[in-house]
Structure formats: C-alpha cells, structure tokens
Amino acid sequence: MTVSARNQAPEGEKIVVENVLVTGGAGYIGSHTCKELASNGLVPVSLDNLVYGHREFVQWGPFVQGDIADGRLLDALFAEHRFAAVIHFAAFAYVGESVQDPGKYYRNNVAGTISLLEAMRRGGCSDIIFSSTCATYGMPDADLIGEETRQEPINPYGRGKLMVETILRDYQAAYGIRHGILRYFNAAGADPDGAIGERHDPETHLVPLAIRAALGQAGPLTIFGSDYPTPDGTAIRDYIHVTDLADAHVRALTHLRRERASVVCNLGTGRGSSVQEVIETVAAIAGREVPVLRGARRPGDPPRLVSANGRAREVLGWVPQRSAIATIVADAWNWHSREG
Ligand SMILES: NC(=O)c1ccc[n+]([C@@H]2O[C@H](COP(=O)([O-])OP(=O)(O)OC[C@H]3O[C@@H](n4cnc5c(N)ncnc54)[C@H](O)[C@@H]3O)[C@@H](O)[C@H]2O)c1
Ligand SMILES: O=c1ccn([C@@H]2O[C@H](COP(=O)(O)OP(=O)(O)O[C@H]3O[C@H](CO)[C@@H](O)[C@H](O)[C@H]3O)[C@@H](O)[C@H]2O)c(=O)[nH]1
Question: What is the ipTM, given to two decimal places?
C-alpha cells in the first residue's frame, strides 16, 4: 500500500489514491482510525448502521449508512470503490449483554463478519484488519500476556471474537484472504485536536465514567472491587490511547500489503494502571475530586490484564506515543469537558 501517496509523490509521478472500507467508522476507534488513514493519504469509506455510531464522527472520507449483513449493499460498495483493504470494527461490545443475549452477539459479530468476508471474496479484496480483544484471553494468570498465551474467553463476546479469529485463518488457507488480527487491551483517550472522542451509550468504560463523575454529569463512580490481590486492592488494566491504536492499524495494513503475510498482534503498553490510579489521575487533571462508591467485584473481571507488546514493536515498528495514563486522561478530559 502506498501510504502518504497524495502529498509526497514526486512531481510527474502517477498518484494512486487507495480506498479502504472501514466498517464501524462512525464509532469510537473506527472514527479515530479514519483520521489516521486520511492523514496517510488513504481514503476511508465508513460503513456504519449507526446503532451505536455517531454521524458527526465521520469527518474523513465518505459515509454510507448500512449494515455489514447486507450483501447487496456490500457488493455495490466494492464495485464502486475497488477497496484496497477492509478495516473491520463493526461489532457489539457489551460483555454483560453478550451473556444475556448471546444470539445477538454471534449474529452481529460472527455471522456479520462472514457476510463481510464473502463480499470481499466476490469483490476480489484480499486484506482485512480485524478488531479483536484481550477478552479472548479470559482470566490468564500470566504477568504479561503474549500472543501465544492461551485464549480461553469466558463470555460470548470474547468467544465470538475468538471464533472470528479462527474463521479468518480458515479464509486465508482456503481463499487467500490475509488478515491482521489486532487484540486491543483497554482503548481510552481522545483525538488530541479535540475533533472526536469516546462516546458509548450506555457508557461502561472506566475513564469516561470517572471523568463524567468529576464533571458532575453522572453519579459517583462505583469502584468494582477493592479486595483484589494487587498493591492497592483495585484491578489493573493496560490502557492504550486510541490514536496509538489508529496508528497501529495503518501500520498493520502496510505490513499486510508489503509482506503479503498475515499478522497477529496484541496492542497494549506493557504497563498496567489500577482503577485507583486512574481515579487519582483524573482528579489531578480535573483539579477536583472524583466522587466514588466502593462496590463488589464485577463478575468475570480478572485482577490484572497487561499486554506484552514486543511483537507489535518488532513486526509493525509500533511504539505507543500517547499512552502514558496522564496523557490518555488529559486528552479524554479535554474532549469531555468541551462536550458539556
Ligand atoms: N473499546 C474498547 O476498549 C475495545 C477493546 C477491544 C476491542 N474492541 C473492539 O473494537 C471495535 C470498535 O469498538 P468501539 O469501542 O469503537 O465501539 P463502538 O460501538 O464505538 O463502534 C462500533 C461501531 O460499529 C457499528 N456497528 C455495529 N454493528 C454494525 C453492523 N452490523 N453494521 C454496521 N455497523 C455496525 C456501531 O454503530 C458503531 O458505530 C469493536 O469490534 C470492539 O469489539 C474495543
Ligand atoms: O464503573 C466502573 C467501570 C469499570 N471499572 C473497572 O475498571 C476497569 C476497566 O473496566 P472497563 O473500562 O469496563 O474495561 P474492561 O472491562 O477491562 O474492558 C473489557 O471490555 C471491553 C468491552 O467493552 C473489551 O472490548 C475489552 O477488550 C475488555 O478489556 C475494570 O477493572 C473494571 O472493573 C470500575 O471499577 N467501575
């Protein structure tokens, strides 16, 4: 893939602008990735049914409202845009809901992905980047989770993501469709320019909930468990800035196209922050207290999930730039406090 083709081609050289289909491009991570694709000279075409997305987040490239299950729509899009590759974010991502209504999750996240892959076959597109998750590892006891750590998901959301990983391997073997499987740890933060940010409805993620509690836009934050075997008793996660995730997607696309080889990477920092540390960081940046309640552990939450990230560094040349917890919180704070 010719990254940065538009602005940096020498005079007289033919400029090739490549289109990339971004499913879920109106969502949180998808919209930030569209910005990064555009700044690398690529044209993201966002396909989103707006069940959870936001039309105003699509600011880079065309928007198409529709569903990945709609094969006819996909055929028309592949014919019109001749996509060089697909980045596939579209999915439901509420772990608790996936336990209550697994059919909804397997239909959208697994069957929907098969619909997309079949359209890629028909449309002659052979590169896909897939949003996987650390939830595929379940409750690992490793200090640092590597790509070879056993994947034993403990809920339908994680199991569906793992099924898609398996399907992608089978599609590569049978049909030559190459994949980049990116297992994100905890996405957080917002566009440093403040153009877009994190908006899930309902919101379940720690950083936005702590900020909204500090702003008085939501009730006190409930700390889910203070009796974990961790230094301060609260659970530890590996928070990764959404713009670092976006950068990794462009790098993974470049890798697929240049090396003609699939890749599987964890995307995390290798460092963990506890719930208590995140709350203290929010309070310091906001200059006000975060009101909290102490509650029970959330079922299914492991004490600690921290990624090894050597492979992403070596294979993609990826080095997180904005993922210090203070930078994540500062960018998220700027976005939320402006949103009002
Ligand atoms: N946020 C995280 O911490 C995190 C961590 C690991 C993995 N992930 C994965 O990353 C991806 C993006 O997550 P996000 O936080 O940006 O979520 P999000 O809900 O903000 O974005 C997902 C988008 O997909 C759209 N969508 C869902 N089903 C669709 C369908 N059938 N057809 C078309 N559009 C559809 C939604 O409207 C939404 O805009 C998801 O696949 C999620 O499972 C997220
Ligand atoms: O009100 C809250 C919300 C969260 N937490 C804790 O904060 C940490 C982070 O929680 P959250 O922001 O909800 O993220 P996770 O549950 O760690 O994220 C998982 O859930 C995502 C689904 O949205 C998956 O995609 C991710 O891969 C997976 O790490 C956990 O220890 C939670 O128990 C609280 O204490 N109080």
Answer: 0.97
